[in-house]
Amino acid sequence: MHHPMTDQELVKAIRSKQPAEVERAVTFLYRYKGYVTSFVRSDTQRDLLLFDQAFCDDLFQEVIVAFLENVWRGMFTLQDNVDVKTYLWKISRLRYFRFRESELRRIQRDSHYFVLTDDNPPEADAAIIDREQERVFKWAMSRLDRDGQEFIRMYHYEKRTHREIGEILGISEVAAKQRYYRYRLQLAELLKAYELPG
Amino acid sequence: MNYPVELLEKIDRYLDGHLSEDECRTIELRMIEDNGFRDLVHAMKQTKVHIEEAELAQLARQVVKRLDFEQVETDKTTVPMRRIGLGNRFWMKTASIAAVVLLVNGAFLTLNTVDLANADISPKVHRLALETTPDGLRPEERTALNNFILANELFVNGDYEAAIPYYKQTANANVSDYLKECTWWNLSHAYLKLGKVEEAKHYFNMYNNLAKPHFQSSFMSQLRFKAQLVWADLFS
């Protein structure tokens, strides 16, 4: 059993950016999965759209990551009339209807038997998750050459020092540092094109 | 533009909050005076934040995936039960009541003492199958009946082992069908008390297979005995 967290504690844990705290927050948020993805189960065209359990799992992952990004970006602030659970539901619903619409359009292209419904995606929060920071970052990373990606991965994700990276690649520590910063500035240039808030 | 690595490292330390107050002030002053430098710090900050957040987002996905997996494992070991709905609640309630009734009845049938057959001492009862003198029992009948009464006494005192030979003597004697049936009935009970289920079943079936028994045991007595047989069979 996990200790219950208030919305304030949740947001504080996410903002701390400490892996252990973020993990605790995500573990707590998991209890909202059923609620957050409830409209998928009640969708009468679910079978047609092939929205199965795996789809719900993916959707919930997307919602959690979008929520974390919104908290980090300062786009989610606690208000009296909005709790975290409802906010997650809104993000989920917006993403769901967007995906649903594109799926229905795709099916419509293939068949004349299916007609688009009049579902109106909610307008609230639309701007908040439009940016899709994670997708942009992945794109920027993919624009770096293989060495660049490797440097960023080793330094940030594997938490290696410049000396260790130099030893692995058979170069000096100074050279490893120089190359790392070169790639880092390249990445900064790529991200700048999207004007993401820093 | 090429920046010295030392400067970039310093900016990183500044962003990590690892510089002294004086060093921080120097950097902040330069940011005010030099737009290019300010953009560089901003760009460095941006990449740092994005790398960090991408890492945490990955962590979040892994946590959710792990919890999904744990959920599936839990579901596998849990008996699926539909929730919500008036219909289900009704059936749950009905099933609960039925379970309680079965339990009470089972306990009643299993624990309640079964009535022992008591052969009627009146000679009239024994004249149904045997040619006897009108005013009394034949000596063999008298002996068999005495054995039966003695066996019953031993049974009531809990000495089932000792009661069985007397019952058997009665059963093997040339006595009325009524007395034989009473003896079979009591023999089956004595054997059951000793935990000898097969023998108990044998004598009970001898009685139970009769189309029209002279000794009439009650329906409840038969039911109780059958329940006790089943119970004993389960744990034998």
UniProtKB/TrEMBL annotation, chain B:
InterPro entries the record matches: TPR-like_helical_dom_sf, TPR_rpt
Database matches in SUPFAM superfamilies: TPR-like
Domain of life: Bacteria
Name by which UniProt lists this protein: Tetratricopeptide repeat protein
Organism the protein comes from: Arsenicibacter rosenii
Lineage summary: Bacteria, Pseudomonadati, Bacteroidota, Cytophagia, Cytophagales
